[in-house]
UniProtKB/TrEMBL annotation, chains A, B:
It comes from the Bacteria. The lineage of its organism: Bacteria, Bacillati, Actinomycetota, Actinomycetes, Kitasatosporales. InterPro entries: DNA-bd_dom_put_sf, MerR-type_HTH_dom, MerR_fam. This is Transcriptional regulator. Residues 1-70 form the HTH merR-type domain. GO terms for molecular function: DNA binding; DNA-binding transcription factor activity. Keywords: DNA-binding. It holds the Pfam family MerR_1.
Amino acid sequence: MRLAELSERSGVSTATIKYYLREGLLPPGHRVTATTAEYDAGHLRRLRLVRALIQVGGVPVATAREVLGHVDDESLGRTVRLGAALWALPHAPEPDEDDPAVVAARAEVDRLLESLGWETARELAPLSPVHRSLVVAVATLRRLGYLWDAELMAPYGELMHQVARRQLDFMETHASPTEQVELAVASAVLFEPVLRALHRLAQEEESARRYGIE
Amino acid sequence: MRLAELSERSGVSTATIKYYLREGLLPPGHRVTATTAEYDAGHLRRLRLVRALIQVGGVPVATAREVLGHVDDESLGRTVRLGAALWALPHAPEPDEDDPAVVAARAEVDRLLESLGWETARELAPLSPVHRSLVVAVATLRRLGYLWDAELMAPYGELMHQVARRQLDFMETHASPTEQVELAVASAVLFEPVLRALHRLAQEEESARRYGIE
């Protein structure tokens, strides 16, 4: 398809598509003549992913380019390619390690990962911004006097593990490895709002069931 | 305890406590003399909740006052008091009902609630900003070409229901109804970052288990 059709089918203006092409977020089309190029289904999919990252996820253009670079780098392991977006999303800043709430939170998160048997998450901990975000969130709770510990968190960890397993199972139903990685990256950005809304709706439902609606 | 001790034990400056008192976010202390007042454990707990809402949840002062008004209003049903913070948090704006993606998303969310048997959530749907957020999130996915439907979402809804049940069970272990409501409001704000981090960490763990770390 030509640029005009790509624009029509993706709902993205030709000016924006040209901008993404210049910024290297979208691979160039296949040259037909000096002034026209052909685009294919891969371009359409990639455009969808770029919009998910930038417009929905609020990821800066430079970060999106970095994420897509990892997605396309077939020399990288699949875990790294899948995790590219997860690690590139905004995360909590480095916590203050002198803060007793941070020290206690880190110890509880360590105990949690041990009790869940999440061995690789423990291995990746020193590098992972995701691990850091959990430490910061638990430290915030503890600082306010809500003493969340490993025992309290473990059942939620198990439930989130079921969510993650189901997401990867779904991803694996997709044909090509490129499509799988693209889907994983998009869902890192797009699925969180769905999960949060489902959680809030479940709270509403369960609370109304137990205590009625007046 | 006096104001100085309340400040020390809560980690909130006396200036900020006085501001919260003036704004009606914290009930006045018990007058001892014309210039001094006594504060109790209830004040300490309330201060913790105010900080959770304002500093962690980013809730504006006027909204926090509204939420706390609901929390304290014993004439309201428990579901409304518990849900006060949930409804006051920032939510998606009204979707464009002429957008075919919104129409399709709303139909899928209706089918989802029916298949889950979430009757009260269905009843509250026209009023609920939580329901609206789910429609908007699903519409965004569909607009990008990810055709999420009721069947795909149902298992995640079941898992989130388990999370919500566990949260209410925990809340019910607390002594007084006021403490229970305060805990529910605080957790609406504070627990979401923990759940999100656990979800991301579970994705990291499951992906590393399946595809290894290179």
